[in-house]
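Q: What does the assembled structure look like for these inputs?
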Amino acid sequence: MDKDIETLSTLAPAIVLVKPQLGENIGMVARAMLNNGLTDLRLVAPRDGWPNAAADSASSGALNKGVTVTLYGETAQAVEDMQYVLATTARPRDMIKEVYTPEAAIDETCAQALSGGNRTAILFGGERSGLENEDIALSNAIITAPLNPAFTSLNLAQAVLMIGYEWSKRIYGAQVMPTEFKKGDTPFARREEIDGLITRLTEELDAHHFFRSEGLKPTVTRNLTNMFSRMQITAQEVNTFHGIISALTGQKPPRSDHKGE
Amino acid sequence: MDKDIETLSTLAPAIVLVKPQLGENIGMVARAMLNNGLTDLRLVAPRDGWPNAAADSASSGALNKGVTVTLYGETAQAVEDMQYVLATTARPRDMIKEVYTPEAAIDETCAQALSGGNRTAILFGGERSGLENEDIALSNAIITAPLNPAFTSLNLAQAVLMIGYEWSKRIYGAQVMPTEFKKGDTPFARREEIDGLITRLTEELDAHHFFRSEGLKPTVTRNLTNMFSRMQITAQEVNTFHGIISALTGQKPPRSDHKGE
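A:
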């Protein structure tokens, strides 16, 4: 898998903005791209020309830290060196094309890269009217994002992020460690430490007449055990609880209960 | 599944912005939220107060079309009515918390809603410094996005979109029809129409001395068949090809070859 990620990184998709209008949006696209490990930005006939000061400022440095910008006059030129082209559009078209979600589109982009060494370009239309039919005709497939049908007006940089994020998941997802706990400096408590805490707590509760009937004790103990088990308590936190019990009962902490390396 | 989506829609997560600074970013957050079907926006001590004209303008109407804004003085007040709280942060913290990707976080949000009727709040820090440790301490778990480690500076609205999009996938994903073809008004060609086209084409090629040797014919025919099968051609497109052949060979289109309802 690490080798796959290496291969994918060398074949990351190009982002092609066709007739974008606001420099600020181009800058925010660059920022979103670099967040997601994408660096090849291609502009087809940007309305306000290039370079663009508003783009620089909105990019938060992305245009100086890795994103390269290339200018083209026509969409066809911008995708000349690409083997696979995807067009983003929310509106239904009369053309017969496969329609992908962003997730499925990036699955296909990765498959193209890994099986054939193919590079993908992803086309985004300008702010006002999106892609033209001519741009869509030269694409292999369409990407349509799952959006609230009552409010589909998606900002250009947001559209790029939605798709870039799916790429990012595949390249950088492993580093988040989805179901792992982020450990501090202290290890989790051992069972004997947890059980020692629960034993002491129920004894103190007993001594303070907490249990109205003897029958309640096993139930409460079970509930406490479940609660302390569920919270993935650390050895240090067990110490804290011992301190709390000691304070509330006016004792010194019985250190033998919670030590033991 | 439709019933699940209905349930989820009534328990959509609240987005809590803690000490946000720029009105423009708040507006873009509202826009991203409504794109993804989220409508409960809570602001904790926004720097420039509320209402905010820059937010209105950047929201592209989202603040008038469904997103409600509620103001709070403290994070704890903003999440008072919530059963589950998630904190977004890129920086490692010393606290022991489960760390989710946006995808896993929304899985958990959905599970909380469907199994317990629990509502989730998702906390986002301000532009400058993110969430404070006090905000993270009252959260059940952390969300960390998979980002390019060399450029993790994520715009506030982009952070909201990344997580909102995972929600949107679950609520609106079905309407994209991932692997379906988007059909126009014409149906796909029947096999006999495709085979009729290939037969005519190879006959014309034969008549025009295309095949240098007789042995080439089966190979070329197989390649043509494969190509026309792969492209999911429509009946209308078969007609177009017949027209092309007729034009190139100076004939009238032989209508009997491509008709047949």
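The CA atoms of residues 45 and 129 of chain B lie 15 Å apart.
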